[in-house]
Specification:
Structural class: alpha/beta
Number of strands: 19
Number of domains: 2
Strand order of the largest sheet: 12-11-8-13-16-17-18-19
Helix content: 25-40%
CATH architecture of the largest domain: 3-Layer(aba) Sandwich
CATH class of the largest domain: Alpha Beta
Shape: elongated
Distance between the termini: 31 Å
Strand content: 15-25%
Radius of gyration: 25 Å
Length: about 425
């Protein structure tokens, strides 16, 4: 899924860690997403990666002790003024401790001290250096000051020790930067449940009934919500590869399992989470719970085998013909308590003549707030990277056009905002 960060300016700080080479991957991901990336390096970082490498990746000059200029924007004051977010990755234990105390004894720390926007720090250091109470206290202080800290990984480190200290994966750091750039106050801290994929109804231990749903639209919706700041619970029958690890994911198979987990997730979502603005308010009247949302993107099987079998049914025992007895699966949307939650259903249709009327009928029949109608041409319409959606409510029918699924997901979320007062 291609995230679009066009027009965004990112300031990438690189310190003297063995993980400095991974900052190249972070820069590459940001540039690929359309962001303009500006790099500032400590003298120690230049011992691991050259400034020329980052210039080649970003097509922008790199700020170092030697290149700082007061006749241009390449200095520790002006460079940060034009950037939307600053990301320090990797951040050594030394840099973390200095940053928390406001010490600015190198070009990167000077730039960070002068930066007024959102700051993200991804530590990378020896396990014992990070576990030292001074460093732990510094990381807590960064968080207290609303600096986003991307926790390191636990693995075999370059020094030979095993434990927490390895830089987080470049993709996870990229997602944190993208989230800081794309956050939406409407969705921030709002609890949202997303279901996705086609359910698989067991015949025996090696066979099942299912459909052609790829789960791509649901995955795009979950990612778009996460990047806008939502507290996402993603319930899916498909893989979650390529999604941020911070998205809470539940893997399911059968319709009954999907129903049970969705009911639980909706119940938890209704307990609510206060918005950050509300929690910071001294007036208790401002403690307003954000209304949760449910995006029912999953393609649910209509029937399931009446008598699923253990083991594998033998073809020789079944004979030339096999009559498989089926029973209807539960209707998930009709079974859910949709009071105090906004529900967006997804409906795929091949009957173009009656598709819109069927979508409108679903609004009333299933008591949902909106329907995302997808008119399919044939079997080949499944699993593509693009989609075409019509957003249907009781008051309006709005075509969202054809686009890649992540772009469409963002358009759907923009339309879904109007449902809060429904």
């Amino acid at each position: 899924m291609q995230i679009n960060l066009s027009g965004k300016q990112v300031l990438l700080g690189v310190t003297g860690s063995i993980s400095a080479y991974k900052a190249c991957d972070i820069a590459r991901l940001l540039v690929k997403a359309g962001a303009s990336v500006h790099v500032v390096m400590t003298p120690s970082a230049e011992r691991f990666v050259s400034a020329l490498t980052f210039e080649a990746l970003t097509r922008n000059p790199v700020l170092t002790e030697e290149t700082e200029s007061w006749s241009s924007e390449l200095n520790h004051i002006d460079l940060g003024k034009k950037c939307d977010v600053m990301l320090i990755a990797p951040a050594t234990a030394n840099s973390v401790n200095k940053l928390s105390k406001g010490i600015a004894d190198n070009i990167l720390l000077q730039t960070a001290l002068a930066f007024k926007g959102k700051l993200i720090v991804a530590p990378a250091a020896n396990t014992q250096m990070l576990a030292n109470h001074y460093t732990e206290g510094s990381i807590k202080m960064l968080r207290v000051n609303d600096i986003i800290v991307v926790d390191p990984q636990s693995k075999l480190l370059a020094c030979g020790d095993t434990g927490a200290g390895a830089l987080a994966e470049p993709e996870d750091i990229f997602y944190e930067a993208a989230k800081a750039l794309m956050i939406d106050p409407f969705w921030e801290d709002r609890r949202v449940v997303v279901t996705g994929g086609g359910t698989r109804e067991k015949i025996d231990d090696v066979r099942y009934l299912s459909n052609y749903s790829s789960g791509k639209m649901a995955k795009a919706t979950a990612l778009a919500l996460y990047l806008k700041g939502a507290d996402v619970c993603y319930i899916t029958t498909k893989d979650t590869q390529g999604l941020p690890k911070d998205i809470y994911t539940i893997e399911v198979e059968e319709t009954q399992e999907l129903l049970e987990y969705t009911k639980d997730a909706v119940r938890v979502a209704k307990k609510g989470k206060m918005s950050r603005a509300s929690m910071n308010s001294a007036d208790p009247r401002h403690l307003i719970q954000k209304i949760p949302y449910l995006f029912m993107v999953a393609a649910v099987s209509d029937y399931t085998p009446k008598f699923p079998q253990a083991g594998k049914l033998k073809k020789a025992a079944l004979g030339d013909e096999w009559n498989l007895e089926l029973t209807q699966t539960p209707d998930i949307l009709s079974s859910l308590d949709k009071f105090d939650i906004r529900t967006v259903a997804f409906k795929a249709e091949m009957d173009e003549a009656n598709a819109l009327e069927n979508a409108k009928a679903l609004l009333e029949k299933k008591k949902v707030d909106a329907v995302c109608l997808n008119i399919l041409k044939d079997r080949e319409s499944f699993g593509t990277n693009e989609n075409e959606i019509i957003f249907v409510t009781k008051d309006a029918v709005k075509p969202l056009g054809k686009a890649d699924k992540f772009t469409l997901a963002q358009k759907i979320l923009d339309e879904a905002k109007t449902l809060e007062q429904a």
